[in-house]
Design goal:
Strand content: 25-35%
Strand order of the largest sheet: 2-1-5-4-3
Distance between the termini: 95 Å
Mean pLDDT: 88
Number of strands: 15
Oligomer: single chain
Structural class: alpha+beta
Low-confidence stretches: none
Shape: elongated
Largest sheet: 5 strands, antiparallel
């Protein structure tokens, strides 16, 4: 595409029209520009030249957005917007878009872009007209608390975006790094949405479904149902592969400058808070001596798991007792008894999978819920392994005749609830005690 100086050398009518256009570029208060099909600037007004921080138009003509804008994320966004415009061939009028910051403060422009076409209707470039409406735009906002995020992000906030739902555009977004962790900038709202749902670690989390089906209609439905704000707490994957807890806050509002429905999306760091909560829960649910679940916790989680199980599922419940444990305390003292119980518990824990529930339900009594087994033979093999491990722990106290007895019940065979299974396994454990100890009995064995 020829630039204006080249075109001016042609016919009188062309020269007259382009001389007038040159006068407009020189005198208009608006930011006017022309780009060719390759996104290269061919004309620019004086205000546009100043907007991008250049002194003369020659620093713009023949260059792309990547050349003239210091903010490469902004440049990438402009190029993506223009590419979409050229692809559709449709003009876009009076929409709000971010302008380059001034002294670190965001600015906004009301922009119209027109697709230039040749005689055959084929796009050959874009003409744009924009005016800075930052002052009136912010003056018309009745939600100053939300807008503050766009100027000065709180210390715990990774990201804030202001979204125009009507035009389906991110008007502006702000990002910052917290303790070395950060989110990426987005070229448009589609990129924002994809980054959100693809980085929700747990696909069953409500946050994944919310962003996966994030659309104009879904947001309007939420608004129509009376919700003006809501939050989502979930574990998000960061670009370095780390996983961190975040809280997304979504706030709806109506932009008084154009009556468009808008939303503020804020992503805050809550990782330390969640870790502290997890540690408190862990401490409340754990047995101090062994680190296993305490009685209340193991029964609670076992009940919750079995309540969700159904026909065809197979699980096994073990009740394990340290026989003659009182002799250890009486002979060597309670400190030695504590050491023995800790070793006994560790041997039990090491025999089972991470997914199995292991807890201490009494002074020398333990319980294990072995989840999702393929058959009773697997349970029998596990019981034999467990018997061997407990023998090793007790061998140093053979003079005291300390041993381990195990009772086992099967879900769906011996019962369906924790209470039923525990009672049957407990009876089987006492049969093991009465038949030589250091052995395991199933509930259905006589």
């Amino acid at each position: 595409m020829k630039n204006i100086d080249e075109i001016l050398k042609e016919g009188k009518n062309t020269r007259l029209l382009l001389t007038a256009f040159q006068a407009i570029l020189d005198d208009t208060p608006s930011m006017v520009f022309v780009k060719d099909i390759n996104h290269v600037y061919q004309a620019a007004s004086v205000p546009f030249t100043k907007l991008v921080g250049k002194n003369v138009r020659e620093e713009i003509i023949g260059h792309s957005d990547y050349d003239i804008f210091e903010d490469k994320n902004l440049a990438r966004r402009y190029v993506a917007d223009d590419a979409k415009l050229l692809a559709t061939g449709e003009d876009r009028l009076d929409y709000i878009e971010p302008l380059p910051d001034e002294n670190g403060q965001p600015r906004y422009g009301s922009t119209s872009k027109y697709v230039l076409k040749d005689a055959e209707g084929k796009p050959i470039g874009i003409a744009g007209v924009s005016r800075d409406i930052t002052r009136e735009y912010l003056a018309n906002q009745n939600h100053q608390a939300e807008i503050e995020y766009l100027f000065d992000l709180p210390d715990d906030t990774y990201f804030a975006a202001f979204i125009d739902i009507n035009t389906w555009r991110v008007i502006t977004e702000r990002l910052q790094t917290i303790d070395g962790y950060s989110l990426d900038a987005h070229e448009n709202i589609d990129a924002l949405i994809q980054a959100a749902y693809s980085n929700v670690v747990d696909r069953k989390d409500p946050a994944y479904a919310f962003y996966r089906y994030f659309s104009k209609d879904s947001l309007r439905d939420i608004y129509a149902n009376g919700k003006r704000d809501f939050t989502l707490e979930y574990v998000r994957r960061f670009s370095d592969g780390s996983h961190r807890w975040v809280r997304d806050e979504i706030r709806f509002m109506v932009d008084p400058s154009n009556s468009h429905m808008c939303a503020m999306l804020i992503v805050r760091d809550i990782h330390s808070q969640k870790e502290n909560e997890r540690n408190l829960v862990w401490a409340a649910e754990r047995d101090d001596m062994t680190g296993l679940f305490n009685r209340a916790a193991v029964l609670k989680y076992a009940k919750a798991f079995l309540d969700k199980s159904g026909e065809g599922d197979l699980h096994a419940l073990f009740v394990i007792d340290a026989d003659n444990f009182k002799r250890v305390n009486d002979t060597y003292g309670h400190q030695a008894g504590d050491v023995f119980i800790a070793r006994f518990a560790a041997a039990i824990r090491e025999c089972f999978r991470e997914s199995d529930l292991v807890g201490r339900v009494g002074g020398d009594e333990f319980m294990v819920l072995m989840k999702n087994i393929s058959g009773a033979d697997i349970v029998r093999d596990k019981s034999e392994t467990l018997v061997g491990s407990l023998k090793n722990v007790c061998s140093e106290l053979s003079a005291l005749d300390v041993s381990g007895s195990i009772g086992i019940s099967i879900y769906g065979v011996d019962g369906y609830t924790v209470d039923e299974l525990f009672e049957k396994a407990d009876r089987a454990m006492y049969r093991a005690k009465n038949h030589g100890k250091h052995c395991a009995y199933f509930a259905n064995e006589e």
